[in-house]
Amino acid sequence: xxxxxxxxxxxxxxxxxxxxxxxxxxxxxxxxxxxxxxxxxxxxxxxxxxxxxxxxxxxxxxxxxxxxxxxxxxxxxxxxxxxxxxxxxxxxxxxxxxxxxxxxxxxxxxxxxxxxxxxxxxxxxxxxxxxxxxxxxxxxxxxxxxxxxxxxxxxxxxxxxxxxxxxxxxxxxxxxxxxxxxxxxxxxxxxxxxxxxxxxxxx
Length: 203
Fold this sequence. Notes:
seven-stranded mixed sheet, two-stranded antiparallel sheet, 6 helices, 11 strands
């Protein structure tokens, strides 16, 4: 089996008709970066099911790297997530309370994991290509954080790079939201390509 980069995205959230995370991930299926082939995987917008799906995929595929993508409507840049917390709230509408009603992603797991992606190198590469990007210290307490934490916990005894990148609304989505930041699908795809190339070079 060829060495792969597992790239995950999500189904549409709520009433949205699309999700930029899956639009980008699906476009990159089969692409190669420094000899590593991308295997794209669409996850359900459900904490428990998404967690189990990513755990199963890592166990089955033994990827050389794992990168999760998710939608963060309202953020103006690609957000490179630094920390995944052991908190999951299955209801998106409660995420704004900061996890007061959240429960552990993994029972008796560590409070948090730090990303294993080379964030500084990725950020420099994105800025060289004029792609808006920033570091983020919170992946929230909903399904994106759940997937990031689950991946890092599953890989805790390996040296596999793993982490998560949040994407803004795609431009077409923003037409249905008032005064909200967005980014073209092409720019987001180019940004993720740069991130994957940077990760692959570290391997």
